[in-house]
Amino acid sequence: MAELGALWIVRHGESTANVAASTAEAAGAELIDLTHRDADVPLSDTGEEQARATARWLAGLPAGQRPDVAVVSPYLRAVRTAELALAGTGIPASVDERLRDRELGILDGLTGHGVARRFPDEAARRQRLGKFYYRPPGGESWTDVALRLRTLLGDLRRDHPGRRVLLFGHDALVFLLRYLVEGLSEAELMGLTRKHVIANCSVTGWSADATGRLVPQTFNDVTHLHAQGAPPTTEDEIHAEPV
Asked: Phi-psi category of 201—alpha, beta or left, where left has phi over 0 and alpha has psi -120 to 50?
């Protein structure tokens, strides 16, 4: 199967839930103060500013380096990021549910402290199985998300051979795309998650080399935000698991 010409993923801009989760974790609270279901969480004012800065970055790319097509998570924070970032570019966009954030099941809306207090058996099971394979009841493991991303990549390669594809999604997807595209091991992937927090509206990308293989070009890059005067933020998603 032919490879893509280039692939990027942009994490959505800062959301109101990112802010609420950071506040709850810092306060040692068990619950995150959420007013929307995960799929409907909007961007914060800062997130909208970050998305507009991303639009200016895209507009400044040479014509031969711009994405040909965009594919977007159905979650509102990603959809709004894409709307603002793609405005005026003419890049066609579609929504694909395989780019949604990881589902946390019964742990949704809890801080790490909340999980340890309310579901100590789950906290222990997660520690035993490890972050990669642990699946919360009613939720997904990282491997579950990797499986849906595998199918998406296969479809993109089939439908857009040689073209440049831009994805809008979530922080776990950025890590897992590195795992899939670069053929990382579980240990290498988990090492990345310990060293890095994926910044809001950061850009991670790969381009095809002379053999047609995708090779990494940039990771978690927020240079465009600094250049446009938009404040970078690095809040986690609503990750309820204990560290």
From this structure: left
